[in-house]
Amino acid sequence: MLRNGVFLTAAVLFGLATVVSVLTAVVPGFSLLVAVVLLLVPLAVVVLGVALVANGLQMLRAEGRSVGNLLSLAAGVAVFVLPAVAIALLVSGSGEGFTLWDGTKIAVAVLMVFVCGYFALSLVAFALYSVVYGRTRHGIVPDTIVVLGSGLVHGEVPPLLQSRLDRALGVYRAERSAGRRPLLVPSGGQGDDEPRPEGTAMAEYLVANGADPDDVVPETASRNTRENLRFSRDVQTAAGRDGQMVVVTNNYHVLRAATLARRLDLPAQVVGARTAAYYVPSAFLREFAAVIVEHRWLNVVACTPFVLFTGFLLWESFQQR
């Protein structure tokens, strides 16, 4: 599924390059417009960095300090620091001709550019396909509606989790209006800092907001998204259901949840609930980081040519001593 994002991004970039090439050839002065746009790219990078830093500070004020909440701030700082370091490595010289140290600095700068470019394009592909998948309507008739859990606050459902439950209730009510009775499975175990399982609190919320208690069967043993999906399928099977699922999460989490569902061979469509705008950048970066870690060996292989090229540059520097 993630390959689709890569192919989609490649197609978009190729399409843009083709359109620009054609327009440059047939429209007088279009090349000047292209040059202006390219000159604005550094400004866009600065704006992006400032926006990420501002969002990171807002996250710290609103959500508290945690590794996850620091991601947008860290990304914003990296937007400024990494290019500055690469430029400094490229322009600084020893003043004694071209030395091995000069070659090493150039090689490191080139490696930074390649690796940062790789992950930047990966993030664009992930973001682009997340938007496309999130807006795709598959039109399945759900036998079971699974709601993925997230942390409780003092044992109660916080706004982030409430948005998932409300979206699930919307799907449930639409199915009931059509004469069907899907099973509702609120899925989430008990964290170390939680007084009760997430699934239990979620089930209470669903029933309190109109779901038939007979249609709600909580799953309370899972500790992560993969277990949410696996254990919810077990609940579905135990209830005598074997049809398709709708899995409800927040919009930033849709693509990774869908990828995991496909990997587990579940007949599921994943839909997203709205998330507070300030929360999305950091949460989305967290999802991207999780995907990178899950596919770490693929990313190592993809970055290996960059490392080999850096080694070649170092070898050339050594030969010129």
From TrEMBL:
Keywords: Membrane, Transmembrane, Transmembrane helix
Record-annotated DUF218 domain positions: 143-289
This protein's GO CC annotations: plasma membrane
Biological process annotations from GO: Gram-negative-bacterium-type cell wall biogenesis; peptidoglycan metabolic process
Stored CDD domains: YdcF-like
Chain segments annotated as transmembrane: 34-57, 69-91, 106-129, 297-315
Protein name in UniProt: YdcF family protein
Organism whose genome encodes this protein: Curtobacterium flaccumfaciens pv. flaccumfaciens
